[in-house]
Specification:
Layout lengths: L3 E5 L6 H7 L9 E8 L9 H22 L3 E7 L2 H12 L3 E6 L12 H9 L4 E5 L17 E5 L4 H17 L2 E9 H4 L7 H21 L5 E8 L1 H9 L6 E5 L8 H14 L4 E4 L9
Parallel strand pairs: 1-2, 1-4, 2-3, 4-5, 6-7, 6-9, 7-8, 9-10
Antiparallel strand pairs: 5-10
Helix pairs in contact: 1-2, 3-4, 8-9
Length: 291
């Protein structure tokens, strides 16, 4: 499933904490690519001693990852704008997932998650696993068995949400993880002209979620449940996601204009900027890609 994973490393995060959150052999991981990008001015030469220190630091972190995960791990040290370099490496190595840590640092234009994370989420064609990092460089919250405890899955029943469900299913059934699915009737789309149809929408969507619940449990997931709500999707999703009940969220994201504006303009962006738990953002699948 996630046979090749690209871990974007800014060298400030605790590599042992990162390793605990990475999908391992249970999800089919066969290789980890540890990458670091540095972006000095184009006309500025790079001191050999500086470069050698970077290589030595990455090598130590590589050894730690390989030992903790019992997986082959290689290093990629590249010069260039970080988001672009990460995306190019992901393409070059045809990775199954990009993993990176991000801080809530404040600022404009998505910088609450960092500009690199922001760019990746808007351009990726591969799943991105975003880990919430504290100022001490450690993953926020309980890092033990992130994928295997309780997964939160918001869905709008779009094609991208269906693709995200396939990834959710693989994780939940591999770990026998509990799953809570969540659908929000979007107030902006329903009010005022379709409000009278809300009970019918509610029945239909609960029936869909019931089928998904039964499918997950029949295929090895833990006890699953669902909830349906009404209001602003981003607000409702964040309220539940940040309740402290969940270890991981899986959600569809835009990925170069592939899904409705709701996920780019409000939901996925809001989750990225204000969510407090690890999130796997899943773009619409391209031909030949699977998870």
């Amino acid at each position: 499933m996630f046979d090749k994973i690209l871990l974007a490393d800014n060298l400030r995060h605790d590599v042992t904490h990162l390793a605990k959150c990475l999908p391992g052999k249970r999800l089919g991981a066969k290789e980890i690519i540890l990458c670091h990008s540095f972006d000095p001015p184009k006309d500025m030469p790079v001191d050999k001693m500086f470069y050698s220190k970077l290589e030595a630091t990455l090598e130590e972190r590589r050894k730690t990852l390989a030992s903790l995960l019992d997986l082959p791990c290689k290093v990629e040290l590249v010069r260039g704008e970080p988001a672009r370099a990460i995306l190019e490496l992901a393409e070059e190595h045809d990775v199954s997932m990009i993993v990176m840590g991000s801080h809530h640092s404040g600022g404009l234009r998505g910088s609450l998650i960092g500009s690199v994370s922001y760019s990746l989420l808007h351009e990726t064609i591969r799943p991105v696993f975003l880990l919430r990092m504290s100022r001490t460089g450690r993953v926020q919250g309980d890092v033990d068995n992130v994928c295997g405890r309780h997964i939160f899955f918001p869905t709008d029943f779009s094609e991208t949400a269906e693709d995200a469900f396939l990834l959710l299913e693989r994780i939940a059934t591999s770990y026998n993880a509990k799953v809570t699915m969540f659908h929000v009737h979007d107030k902006a789309r329903i009010d005022p002209y379709l409000r009278h149809m809300l009970p019918e929408f509610d029945r239909e969507d609960k029936a869909r979620l019931q089928r998904l619940k039964e499918h997950l449990e029949a295929n090895g997931a833990g006890t699953s449940s669902f909830q349906v709500s009404y209001g602003v999707p981003a607000q409702r999703i964040l309220r539940l996601a940040n309740s402290g009940e969940f270890s991981l969220m899986v959600i569809g994201c835009q990925g170069r204009g592939f899904i409705p504006e709701i996920f780019l303009g409000s939901t996925a962006n809001a989750v990225a900027r204000h969510g407090e738990i690890p999130v796997i953002f899943v773009p619409r699948r391209r031909g030949g890609m699977s998870w």
